[in-house]
Amino acid sequence: MKNKSNLLLFSALLGGLLFTFLFWKERLALNLLIYSIYLLIVTFINPDVVKSTKLKIYGLAHLLAAVLVVVNNSDLSVVTYYISLLIFIGFAHNQQLRTVFTAFAAVILQLVTVPFNAIQQLSMVSVGSFKLKPLFTLIKYLFIPVIIVTIFACLYAAASNVFAHYAEETLTYIGNFFQNILHFFFKDLSIERIMHFCFGLVLTSGLLLAFFDKSLERAELKCKEQLVRIRRSLGQKTIWYHIVQTFTGNLLTRKMALKTEYIVGIISFTALNLLLLMLNAIDITTLWFGYEPSGNFSGELHQGTNSLIFSIVMAMAVILYYFRGNLNFYHKSKTLRLLAYTWIVQNFILIISVYIRDGYYIEFHGLTHKRIGVLVFATLCIIGLATVYFKVAKQKTIFYLFKVNGNIWFVLLLTFTLINWDVLIAKYNLTHETSIALDADYLLSLSEKTLPILDKNRKTLLSHSFIPKGEIIVSSTNDQILTRLDNRIEYFKERYKTTSWLSWNLQDWNTAEYFGLNK
């Protein structure tokens, strides 16, 4: 146990040093890949970590996300990197977890409790006959009082300007005292660099030192994927029973309460199906075939799309509510299931309308991140509806939905990260400049990886030949557009000259190659 604690603590310390070397005043790129490789190696050599197939899959997924940061270097790739890292660490230290959501929550808890984990690990360290446990026992007694005093000092400083003045002077004096000592021994180091190292040490410790409390893991183990019929005695009443009893008095038994819920479900799904049938009929006749834009169709499409997506999410919530318990086993529930399936099919049709609305938006205004986001969200709604259908048909639990959808969403997140969206948007919009309302200001707001494309298409960028009927396009003047483009190019050239190999990524290299900076 002591050898393992020494190994993990040494790995955390080495990780902190590696962190400050890789990320100090650097951009996130190749350094993230190096840091991930280090974390993967330490995690897999940790004897307390079970090297299961699931862990290896999520480890490879995180490694792919780290590689994509180097290849695409987009905001999405960085977000995917962090999410995949937290999920991998969560599964590494909680082997019995089954959903990515719980794994994510577990590692957040692990990061928050870094001081407690570190104290527990350090208390087991010994150098010969010298043991650190008495020292950290004293620190444990002082930790909570220090936190409490700090919180109240901040509150008093906010309440009194005089107190805040003296507190600020005290902190400044203490900071200068330690900075003078530091400069006396190490002239090249700074307080900022030391704080950066401390942050890296805390972060690495949180990722490598497992949280000793497994309550979250034990709680998830109680969750089942298959629904079972719960037989309650007459003394056990559900919340729904008490709600119905408010209006009906004591006329209902448990059997009658279930029957009442069934009847309410029949009425609800019948009415909802008729309502959605009317909306789908309107969309099919006016939107699917022969749609002609008029007025501010851009705003209408945008507002309509948001409302439809929200309605689809609510539709899934309604189905989950009615098929959450014993109603799944009610002998007359066949009609209710048929109405629910019809409701699901109609929501599929509604999603097609969302695709068509967004397609019209892209046809007349081009690609943007938000319009792509609508397509992605609609795809997630299709997956959600499909799994909800399977939940109702196979009598699965909501926990099952979280497990399956979590894994699917994670795979889709990695898949979408493979695409260089900024480059795709710029190429598509500039290629279709004669048929869309080209938004030069939006294209100039894209990342620096699009600069070669914009520079090649300067004339196209300045053209505003197509304006959809009923739309008013407001954009910068041609001189302003050219000035912004030139300024961004010059900024990139200056930044690239000061970039070290730790910030290397393929997109920056390609952009620099285009502007002749790699010679």
Automatic annotation (TrEMBL):
Pfam families: DUF4153
Keywords: Membrane, Transmembrane, Transmembrane helix
TM ranges: 7-24, 30-50, 62-91, 97-118, 138-159, 194-212, 262-291, 303-323, 335-356, 372-392, 404-421
Name of the protein in its database record: DUF4173 domain-containing protein
Naturally occurring in which organism (per UniProt): Pedobacter roseus
Taxonomic path: Bacteria, Pseudomonadati, Bacteroidota, Sphingobacteriia, Sphingobacteriales
